[in-house]
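User: Predict structure, ligand pyridoxal-5'-phosphate.
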Amino acid sequence: MYRCWAEINLNAITENLIWIRQRMGAFCKVMSIVKADAYGHGLKQISAHLMSLGGGLLDAVPDAFGVANLKEAADIRSVGAGWPILMLGDCLEDELATALMHKVMISISTFDEAKKFSDFAASKGEIGEVQIKVDTGMGRLGVQATDATELTKQVSMLPNLRLLGIYTHLAAAEDDADFTQKQISLFKDVVEKIKSFGIHLTYIHAFSSGGILLEDNSAFNTVRPGLISYGIVPEGSRKFPVSIQNALHPVLSFKSRVTYVKNIEKGKTISYGHTFTAPKTMKVATVSAGYGDGFPRAASNQGCVLIKGKKCNVLGRVTMDQTIVDVSEIEDVKNGDEVILIGKQGNLEITATDLAHWANTIPWEILTGITYRVQRIYHGTTAS
Ligand SMILES: *Cc1c(COP(=O)(O)O)cnc(C)c1O
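Assistant: Predicted complex:
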């Protein structure tokens, strides 16, 4: 028995990836984004699970994986050999050897980087694999769209590199349709020019979750789903049909247990900084989860958890290991009772997005913020 744990439903991620593949069509490759410990779900377990699928579940098997660093790439290699992996960032000079050793595709923003990788690969008698990153408006990494065609030509001629792809990243897909259209058309222009030079690339991609749900991918041949593969729909001012949220299944539940129940009198205060004062006699429960587990401190006096199928408000500050909640309306609550921080109980559900709202953040930060000490428990079949 655990005090604070996460349950990962492997069947849910399978279904989500099948849904994404069917939505994108047979000619679109799916690069599964498993950075940040697969958004807190366990990078090795999620990768191994997806690699193992076959039979009727083959659609859920990714064509490639996307990671943020080489440790994550090595973790994928440790559970399965030979899968294409893209590092979604530029490679530092002292990382080139590791990138080459693990055959990780690295992202290229400048000719200088590409030349160094080619020279290094040549010194080992090997070929490095790369993709060009194009900045169409994200302003983070990548060659400016105006220079992208020239860079692509130059990189494609380097002797010890294999140029496998080109990609860009949207900055505001969920909110700003016009800005997104500008990004897409800049990237389309680059892609058309490259094709006209006779350069054919395996991976041409622009869309993460928001773009996948809202835009037309027909000019490109790959997508990079992260959040939606974990069953969470990104939110913004551009609205999605309810059918989409219904089609995707949250993969992770975040749970804890009651360790103490007591009655308090009117006027008593709760937790650090005594930010909550009981307005009346109340029954409160201490829950064995806090910001040290990834239950955000910003949810102090905000939002709720579920106990015995009912909502219980968070009272006072969330502490590192424990949180106090109102159980005045719940009969028979006792030590050891299960507490839902994210997930379903009875007819009610708390999503990662709900918790993000209460903590004034986004579901990506909630999921990746679930900490090391939270035991991950896996449910569901792995292969067929
Ligand atoms: C993290 C990331 C993704 C996945 O984004 P989601 O919104 O979680 O789908 C895709 N592409 C790049 C470049 C990323 O950094």
